[in-house]
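Extended Data, panel c. Modelled sequence:
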Amino acid sequence: MATVLIVDDDAALREGLAEAVSDLGHTARVAASGREGLAALEGDVDVVLLDLRMPGGLDGIEVLRRIRASRDAPPVVVLTAFASAANTIEAMRLGAFDHLSKPIGRAELKDLLCRLPERISGSSGPDADAEDGLIGSSEPMRNVQKAIGLAADSNAIVLILGETGTGKELVARALHVHGKRKDGPFVAVNCAAIPEDLLESELFGHVKGSFTGATADRAGAFRDAANGTLFLDEIGDMPRAMQAKILRALQEQVITPVGGKPVRTNARVIAATHRDLAGLTAAGEFREDLYYRLHVVQIAIPPLRERVGDILPLAQHFLARAASGTRHKHLSQAAIDKLQRHSWPGNVRELRHVIERACIMTRSDIIGPGDIDTSAHEATSNPGPAGADLPAAVAQLERTMIARALDACAGNRTEAARRLNINRQLLYTKMQRYGLVEMSEKLTDRVRKDDA
């Protein structure tokens, strides 16, 4: 049972709403003006039905602003007989739970009260400051975390491999923060984002007058990262001409600024790529000697589809971040199931964007499956992440088809194998590889409960 505060200067409408609220089994409290409404909030109120236009110098928008300024403010539903784009947008921007046009029927009121968010005071939810891509206790992520711990204090070059969106820079930052160079700078350079003719100057620096536009000396990323860490992201996209210069810098710890003389550098280098360097090397597109120089310590980050157990902790973390300063939101079980069934071609980055969008666009404290929009990365329209190699794309397609077959068969593996035209043992092997065993068991359990 909820306590509903009705704030409206129209006595007939006010009393009519109060009667309807009472008939639905809730407690009604009424106020004839904005000031009376604010005073009535001193008791426990679960939701406020607030008229937009009221006399007395305190309209609905101002009352809404004052109510939402409280940390534990109840949800506010704005009512108006004169809905416009401007007042709808402003009400929702200020935190209204919903914006409805008068008159409100009993069925609409009942539906509204059923959608009320759960009031949770002082709940901060999961740690909002945790490192996004390192969250998770699945075996694949535990292996990544262990590798970071083993390599952090070393000066050895580390090569981080992983699909787009898996969190390669977060792993590089963790190596820096947890290592003996943590007091030095962390300098990140995206080798794919810098034009080829500027990359040498970006990395090695230049002297004044060495080329048109060089109006002052520049140290470059290697020297900027002195005593710290230089992160070379997407090194697999580095032009071949630059690869020879990078190799010399790594082998001799000497760089030559454009137009300058050689200087020593002591930055620790961490490189990353989403590409298959071994394949590029075999095809002659990446220098073999540089490949082996980079291949000292390798950390491979698993795609999100291979660590399904980490999806919920990550989603809860992103919810806590997205709801910073407001009431924390929660995922329904159906929403969780949908998240765990998705193949996540965009990996952790895609999950973060999906959760942020759901948090922004859902006024309720409970996020349902309809609020989870994964259409931007559906496998049917995007069979693989940008730049992914063929094996990764095939693996993603396999996982998606198996997940859909299991979903359609309510977790029945024999029927799913028949639909996929493979034997049951092969299906189970692939389910283990793609982290789908738990999903199958949940679907089966749900059918049993429905049949009970």
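The chain is about 45% helix and 10% strand. This feature is highlighted in the accompanying rendering.
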